[in-house]
Please model this.
Amino acid sequence: MRTFAIMTRVLKELLRDKRTLALMFLAPIFILILLNFVFSASQSTDVSVGTVAVTRSLKSDLAQTKHVTVKGYSNYKAAKRALDDDQLDAIVRQRNNNYSLTYANTDASKTTAVKMAFRNALSTNAMSHLKEKLAGTTSALAKLRSQLPNAPSTPDRTTAKATTPKITDHYVYGDASTGFFAKILPILMGFFVFFFVFLISGMALLKERTSGTLDRLLATPVKRAEIVFGYMLSYGILAIFQTILIVLVTIWLLGVEVVGNLAYVVLINLLLALVALAFGILVSTFANSEFQMMQFIPILLIPQVFFSGIIPLDSMAGWVKGISYVIPIKYSGDAATQIITRGVPLTSLGLDIGMLLLFLVCLTILNIVGLRRYRKV
Amino acid sequence: MANSIIDLAHLVKKFGEQTVLKDINFAVTPGEIVGLIGPSGAGKSTVIKLALGMEMADSGTATIFGQTMPNRKLLAHIGYMAQNDALYESLSGQENLVFFAKMKGLPKATLAQAIAYVAAVVDLTADLDKRVSGYSGGMKRRLSLAIALLGQPELLILDEPTVGIDPALRRQVWRELNKIRDAGRSILITTHVMDEAELADRVALLLGGDVIAFNTPTQLKQQYQVATIEAVFLKAEGVQL
Ligand SMILES: Nc1ncnc2c1ncn2[C@@H]1O[C@H](COP(=O)(O)OP(=O)(O)OP(=O)(O)O)[C@@H](O)[C@H]1O
Ligand SMILES: [Mg+2]
Model:
């Protein structure tokens, strides 16, 4: 079987290239761990707020908000100076019952955090005022009642206790710490597979072409399809290992919850890897050197990230959204997200799998035909 | 010629504006070594690529074993050695040989024996387990030749096989080539080494896109009235002696 012989040869070459191998397996893990830190850190922006003439109760309510520090100032001028010196992120100033807020606004996320914290504090404050008033009314009522000797005795405390509603949060997927990272993880996983398989296989075929081994190979009775399938087998095997490793790292090291079947995730990524391989081989025929191959990264790979679903597609203009339909990572990302976060079985992912298969078949045929450039039969 | 191994008829090849081959006609019959000589850039490698079907001719036909090229199945009976080494550098010599033997479709049973034989011909037996990246230029050339010899093909097409090979080994290689010829198989060989051209049975002189002479070395020398093939070459090129 020539296909197997080509597969073994490609795998052997890959296994001996320790650096490329390390890049393929360690770089995604490194980046994932970094991203995990980056995104979990951004969820707790610390902000400091200066207050001018704000009631003590509101001030303490605001200070009780997590990641918010409050400092009182005697006048606005002093607070403004602190703001300009970058010691404060915002100033809250009270005039009678109105509040004016001044934001440094150098960091939008801090501004949002202050806005949120202030609104929450305000409503908490209003609530406790209400509670106090209510308590006052209740005690007045009780006094009144005690003055009426024939009044029926009511069960005590019921009214006074039921004032603060208790809120309990339920999460369908993950927990309170589930953030942006968990959302983009299934897509990122696909991107890593795509990126490395695309680049390495493209380079491999390029080298085969420029070193003349492709010519030599085509001077034997090997079929063009056997070459393409041999490459597919070897890179398919590699992609399976890469995906398993990435999935294990994300589950065990980063604690991401996977609801669905892991084997499905591996299968989806395998499919994506084959698409990436076929794409890499196709693109490599338009490059004459490794550097020219690298030039396809900003043109062909980076845009894929934009349309992969990492940035919500709903918010894009219609025609821009249309581009996403020809982005393989979108389909694999969509399928992987559904499997990981909702445990959707493969049978319900027909569209995604079908589209990936369509990409695969088209690109593979293009490659087999494209090899005609080097041998006409 | 009905029974010729290679038959090139009216081959024309252009690369863009440049017409490299104008009208190439010659044939290689069974059991002969044909040497293709000509100055650098004359189009020797191009002739070989057209014969193998690796490039498309603009007009004319190349026939091998009576069948028009390109023809994939026929490639199993042709041993081709390109001008560049074209080896997998991260694999050992042995692994390169095994890989190409499998590509040529050699039966598994005779694989090891065939590899041992060709390795001995090019004197590489001791270095087979070394990675090719650690080979010298001449060793790579020899491995490349060994790959072409694999499977005892009926036709050998060798593009400058003896570049970088020392005289003793060159003799050994020619002894092997003569043995192949004596067994009734055919060889088309290009060379820059003129005394090597003397060893060929017939020599085709490629100049200006045409085969300007195609004859035995002895007759060529008579025709040009000189003592060596080198002189024939120079005279044909118009160089003052
Ligand atoms: N792929 C190509 N594209 C454009 N021009 C080419 C191509 N291949 C060969 N040529 C041109 O065709 C001519 C003949 O090239 P070829 O390689 O056949 O020469 P050669 O006789 O084998 O030379 P040498 O003895 O140096 O190997 C050269 O002028 C070369 O520039
Ligand atoms: Mg040449």
User: Anything to note?
Assistant: Strands of chain B lie at 6-15, 18-28, 33-37, 59-64, 67-68, 78-81, 155-159, 186-190, 202-207, 210-215.
